[in-house]
Design goal:
The chain is of the alpha+beta class and 138 residues long. It contains two helices and five strands, in the order E-E-H-E-H-E-E. Helices cover 10% and strands 20% of the residues. A hairpin with a 2-residue loop joins strand 1 and strand 2.
């Protein structure tokens, strides 16, 4: 899937200009990813350089039922460290986050959260979400 949601205002973000790391804590343990700004965009799910896009490009399973267009909350993540380096959450993102279980003050949608590379991040991928049915990866 992927693409743009024509019903919301586009999020404002800055892409990184230097490499940085994201440490993903997930059900399978922890995975540290080196983000290379010259390789952005990695894919087409979520905003270019966003947490969702980076996770998927590095083989991490992060649900995203809407294809990363800010129309659900299945890519809910908790940015435990480095949230200051991420773009500000839009009203549309905050509206979708209201549907995420386990919401915290550090919660973001992976599809909308774009780090600027000014610091490393620690991101928790909750072991649950609203996507009760999953398809096999093609």
């Amino acid at each position: 899937m992927g693409g743009i949601n024509p019903y919301i205002e586009s999020a404002k973000y800055r892409l990184p200009t230097r490499p940085y790391r994201i440490s993903f804590r997930h059900a399978g343990g922890e995975t540290v990813v080196e983000v290379d700004p010259s390789r952005i965009p990695y894919g087409r799910d979520g905003l270019p350089g966003g947490i969702l896009e980076i996770a998927l490009a590095h083989g991490l399973a992060l649900d995203h039922a809407c294809g990363g267009v800010c129309a659900c909350s299945t890519c809910h993540v908790i940015v435990r460290q480095g949230i200051e380096s991420c773009n500000e959450a839009s009203d549309a993102e905050l509206d979708q986050l209201d549907n995420a279980p386990g919401l915290t003050s550090m919660s973001r949608l992976g599809c909308q959260s774009v780090p600027d590379g000014s610091q490393d991040l620690a991101v928790e991928v909750p072991g649950w979400n609203r996507n009760l049915a999953k398809e096999e990866h093609h």
